[in-house]
Amino acid sequence: MRARDLVVEAWRNVxxxxxxxxxxxxxxxxxxxxxVASELAVSSQILRDHREFVxxxxxxxxxxxxxxxxxxxxxxxxxxxxxxxLSAGFxxxxxxxxxxxxxxxxxxxxxxxxxxxxxxxxxxxxEVGGEVAVGGALVEELGIASGGYMSFAESGDTSMLRRVSxxxxxxxxxxxxxxxxAAVMPSLVSANECWVEFSPQMYSAGATALRVDLMVDDKAxxxxxxxxxxxxxxxxxxDLATRAERFAWAVGGLVVGALLWLVSWMRxxxxxxxxxxxxxxxxxxxxxxxxxxxxxxxGGTIGWLWAAVLGEATAGASLTTDQxxxxxxxxxxxxxxxxxxxxxxxxxxxxxxxxxxxxxxx
Length: 362
Fold this sequence. Notes:
Elements: H1 3-16, H2 18-55, E1 60-64, E2 71-72, H3 73-78, E3 85-93, E4 97-98, E5 106-107, E6 109-112, H4 114-120, E7 132-135, H5 136-142, E8 149-153, E9 159-168, E10 181-184, E11 190-191, E12 193-198, H6 203-213, E13 222-225, H7 233-242, H8 248-266, H9 268-276, H10 281-315, H11 321-349, H12 355-359
Parallel strand pairs: 6-10, 7-9
Antiparallel strand pairs: 1-12, 1-13, 2-11, 3-6, 3-12, 4-5, 7-10, 8-9
Helix pairs in contact: 1-10, 2-7, 2-8, 2-10, 2-11, 8-11, 10-11
């Protein structure tokens, strides 16, 4: 019998066995979907933990000089041109200033550049053009807004207006700068601190190099992490590699294989009839395998799709390519194991047995 005829006959058998096929497809879809959903749920949780670590400044390093001269501000600002650096900027203490609207109080002012704001608050809106940036805590206290003006007291009765170019929220990464007025400056000779955010893969190497980059008088700078490295990229990768769910496909494959065996066992009389009308053992075995392939392919596709839709809805963010690849790999592995079990089923049911052996329990 030609291969094309076997393919058509297998599809006809699957299609005409309406209720049985529907039940098998739904069962296989549930097993596939459960395996894929567990993979997506675990990987999403790992990614959420790592994303939270990144948002809190997990890959932000702060360099502080060991000499009275501080650190070279221009060197710090130029670091953002490197491939491994996402943003970088300096912080330099300036004289305290009084605001006309708050008589009797003086506020800490610092000099920064735009890169510093990018490190403090990566999600801030773009600047509207101006001269100072104000921390979110001070904004709530003074009731000012981006684009407005602040009147600083000068000597005597004079005052100086400065336009607020940005309002930044440093409560997560740099809370101590939430109540300062920051003057946006293109460059300074020296600064007190250098804030640098590295890409996750390059943090360790970048932090080591930063000590040398900020060296003054042969003294390397002190570089520290903004947050405790409780969940960095290495741990996220380890968690992903050692997750228990990575073996879910094996359990699912055995269960699907058992279903295929049960259905094939119940169809022994059908296979005996085929043998009786002249079908050989090889065509019969191929027919059984093709029927299994149709059931696994249809059920597996449906299961993967509903799990992906559910994962997208519950993850709180779009599924990444890596997540879909991991889930797809799990589904394919499950299907291959189920088909391997199906090959054994073929031998024990109809493909390799004599007619009398198939009918002895009928």
